[in-house]
Amino acid sequence: MSYFSEIYNGIKTLLTGMGVTGKYFLHSRKGAITQQYPDNRDTLKMFDRFRGEVVMPHDENNEHRCTGCQKCEIACPNGTIEIIWDRAIEEETGKKKKIIDKHIYHLGMCTMCGLCIEACPTDAIKWAQNFENSVYDRTQLTRVLNKPGSKVKAGVED
Amino acid sequence: METTIVNNDFKSEEYFINMGPQHPATHGVLRLLLTIDGEIIKKVEPDLGYIHRSIEKMCERDSYQQIVHLTDRMDYLSSHINNEAVCLAVENALQLEIPERVKVIRTIIDELTRIASHTLWWGVMGMDVGALTTYFYGFRDRELINDIFEETCGARLTMNYNIPGGLMYDIHPNFVKRVKSFIAHFKTKLPEYDSLLTGNVIFQKRTKGVGILTKADAISFGASGPVGRGSGYSCDVRKHHPYSALDKVPFNEALQTEGDSFARYLVRIQEMWESMSIIEQLIDNIPEGDYNVPTNAVIKLPKGEFYQRVETARGELGVYIISTGTKNPYRLKFRSPGFSNLSLLNHIAVGGKIGDLVATMATLDLVIPDIDR
Hints:
The complex is a heterodimer of chains A (about 160) and B (about 375). Chain A is of the alpha+beta class and about 160 residues long.
C-alpha cells in the first residue's frame, strides 16, 4: 500500500511544481523583470546615485571647481587619481596659489568605492551614470578630467 | 562501506579525480581533490589559493576608511554585512555613539542582503540538483533587492555604503516604498519556492539523509550560520551577541535538528521569513536624525586589540584588529564563515556518492573569495 501511496505522492508533488511553472508559462509577461538591453538604450535610465565613472563637471565658461587640494588622491585606496599641479601667482592678491594642471583618472583601476567624491570639499567631482566603459585599448581608460584650457571657478576655496 | 567485488578478476580500486577549479558546481575557483572508489567518495581535499588577493595584507596598508571597500570583495553576496563588521569594530574602538537612525537602516539593509543571498543560493541549489528553473526564479526576486541597493547605495554588488561613523549618504526617498513593495511581492513568491522545490519528491530524495553533520561535530569544526543551525547548534550571532538594532527586534532563530542537507535547506528558507519579519518591524519606524557622525579625516585607533563579530548570510564573520595607535592596523584578521564550513566537507561527504557531494556542497553555500581572501 505504501508503494502506491509513494507513487501517488511523488506524482502529486511533481504536478504541484509544474503548476507553478505552468502558471508563468501562461502569463509570461506578468511580473517579468527582464530588460531588453541593448534595445532599450533610448529609454534606459540609471538611478541618480549609480556609480558609473568619476567626472568633473564644467560650466559654460569652461570653469571647474577643483582647487587641487589632493584630498581625493589621498582618499583613493588604489592610486586611481593622480593630480599634477603647480603654483601660480594670483593677479589680484599677488599670492601664490595652487592650481591643477591635470586631474588624471585611471578608470581601469577604479573600484567605484566613492571615497574620493565623499572626500572632495568643493564638490568638484561627481559620479556619472555611464556604464558602457569597454574600449579596445586600455590606455583609453586613462582620462584627464579637467578640460583643456579650463580654470578654477572664482571664489572656490577649500 | 561496501566494495563491489564481482569476482577475483574484477577488483575495485581507488582512483583520483580532480573537481575544479573551473567546475560549474564548485561555485567559483575551488579545486577539490577527490579520492573515489567507483562512485563512493573516500577522501575530499580542498585545494585553495586560486583567488587569493591578500586582502588582509592590503588592510595593513590602507586607512580605516579604505579597508571597508576591500571587505566587499570577500563574501560578495553579503557585502553590506562585511562592511558593517569593520565599521562596528572601528566604532567600538573609538567609542563612537552611533545614531539610532544609522542602526536601523543598517539592520534593514543587512536583512535585505541576507534575503538576496539566500534567494541566489536557493536558485543555485536547485540547479545543482538538476532543477534549472529555480535559478531564474531566484534571480527574479534578487533583482528587486538589487534595484533597492542600486538606488540607495549606488551599486548592485560591491556597495561600500557603510563608513566608520555611519552611512555614506542618507537613504533614497524611495527606499521605504520600494522595500515595502518588495516585501509584499516576496511574501507571495516564497510559498512558490516551497511548492517548486521543497516539496518536490526528487529533491527530497537527493537531500534527506545526505551529508549528515551531528551537533557535536558542528561545534568541533566551528560551523556557523545555517550549516551549524541545521544541526541544532544555536549559533546565531544576531541572537546571542546582538549588534545595531537587532536587540530591539524580536525574531526567532531558525533551527533544525536533523543535520542533513535538507535541514540546512529548511533553515535558510525559514531565515528568509525571519528576515522579512525583521524588516517589517523596522521599516515603519526609521528614527529621524543624522545618517552619520563626523569622524576625523585620519582615523587613529587607540593601541590595543579589537574584535567584532556579525552574522553574515553564511555564518559568523569576525574582524580582529590589532592597532599600535597609527592610522593603519598593525594586523587585521578576518574569521570567515566559509573557511570553517569548508573544513567539514570531508567529514560529511566521505562514504557518500559523488553526485551527493555536489548537493552537499551546495547546502554549505560556499563563496570562494571569502575562503581565500
